[in-house]
Amino acid sequence: MAPPSAVLDHIVIDVRDRIDEAAERFTSLGFRMTPRGHHTLGSSNHLAMFADDYLELLGFGAGGAVRGEILPFPVGLNGLVFKTDDADRTHDHAAAAGLPIQPVQAFSRPVTLARATSDARFRTTRLDPKQVAMGRVYFCEHLTPELVWRPEWQAHPNGARAIARVVVATPAPERTAELFRALFGSSAVVADGERRLLQAGTARVELAPPVAVAAEFDDAPDPAGRSEYLAAAVLAVASLPDTARLVRNAPGARVEAGRIIVPAASAFNTTLVFVP
Question: Taking a C-beta distance cutoff of 8 angstroms, is the pair 166, 80 a contact?
């Protein structure tokens, strides 16, 4: 069975019961967040949509159910989601590779456009988060992409256009890389010094030792006692000077040569980096 293609679909920042605060914070950073969605699973979300991928704030609104698979993780960047056009086939491939893959799950959320409401529908298959140290790694099959990727949601005041890099802190990059080789094929991950790199569509997933992550970003997120965690999201923007004018007033934000860093403490325990 051929492995699925490695293409990033979205990243997930868990915000728990602070979803109002999170939506306000990311809006203040220049993201055009979608209206609040309510999953049939009980959770709520806001999305920052880019050309081919997106950033999701996932939490619980008033009266929302608490999803058990999210509870073990702290607030912060905890979800790494890849695209699939057939969740069943992806599940079967992962199972055949001996990976701890969970059954395919179907769910939806209503989306209102021009006063008409339709259901955005999804099918996902997830690796068991109890056996994958970095966080929740899963695949999403979009059955109604036209309700998710909308041009009115893709133009951001901060100029964000795409996820360029996702940085994973791990004490054993080569060992962690074996997970992605099992998912996407033996040649999917390449070595770059002490790092291991997975090209995932236009984005790159980087596995790096925690000391290297701390050296690159200075103020990486609080790992909450974990030795392996999703540490930073690097976003490509249209104009770095324009982005700087919007985000430079965020507490601790630094405008440097070729990049702007918003520290984890100012972005729900997620280091955000903006690059040209």
Answer: yes
